[in-house]
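Milestone 3.1: sequence recovery, worked example.
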């Protein structure tokens, strides 16, 4: 009896460590799907305990959620197939992709220049006085092209809101069409990296994230075959 209890305790501990280390994205989806916890509050989900009849998960705000296992497990050997089935049900219920994006890739090549160009443009057009004599921008860069400075001065009130609107829309589209779909917890550090990249880069950030997803899909296909 004592030996069986030791084996059971060891098996349970292996499951808990494995889920927390390698499948936190699944735990987050469990909270979202079964407990209706928001992605933000589920972002630091940890499996605290598991029994044949339930699992206990803590969230980012230190709340404990108990998810019943129905029917209960007959043995620990059933745990793997059950958590996989629960994750599949969560993915379907949340209308998510089976690919979770867990990393960020920086821009390369000419794409490195794009964020600086966008940031520079926003800074330059942040106030109209930047295009007037006496400003650093005018005195050191635009004093030899006064007609261009006058043109920028004229369009500044109209151009700045347009730039901000376009780039904010791109960032929002990244969050809704990519990050939610691929189970990136909202407002997590990874979420912010991709959203900020989308704001300053636009299509470059989308292409990099889509490449990550395509590579993961190829890897899963190779493993499956």
């Amino acid at each position: 009896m004592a030996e069986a209890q030791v084996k059971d305790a060891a098996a349970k501990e292996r499951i808990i460590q494995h889920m927390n280390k390698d499948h936190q994205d699944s735990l987050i989806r469990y909270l979202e799907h079964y407990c209706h916890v928001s992605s933000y509050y589920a972002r630091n989900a940890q499996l605290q305990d598991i029994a044949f009849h339930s699992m206990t998960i803590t969230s980012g705000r230190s709340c404990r959620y108990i998810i019943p296992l129905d029917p209960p497990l007959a043995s620990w050997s059933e745990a793997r197939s059950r958590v996989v089935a629960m994750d599949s049900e969560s993915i379907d219920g949340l209308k998510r992709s089976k690919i979770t994006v867990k990393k960020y890739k920086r821009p390369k090549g000419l794409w490195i220049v794009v964020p600086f160009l966008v940031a520079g443009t926003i800074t330059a057009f942040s106030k109209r006085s930047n295009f007037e004599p006496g400003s650093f921008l005018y005195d050191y860069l635009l004093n030899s092209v006064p007609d261009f400075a006058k043109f920028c001065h004229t369009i500044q009130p109209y151009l700045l809101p347009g730039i901000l609107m376009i780039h904010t829309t791109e960032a929002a589209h990244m969050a809704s069409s990519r990050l939610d779909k691929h189970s990136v917890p909202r407002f997590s550090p990874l979420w912010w990296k991709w959203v900020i990249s989308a704001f300053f880069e636009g299509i470059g950030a989308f292409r990099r994230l889509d490449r990550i997803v395509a590579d993961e899909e190829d890897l899963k296909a190779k493993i499956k075959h």
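The first helix runs from residue 2 to 22. Residues 79 and 85 are 10 Å apart (CA to CA).
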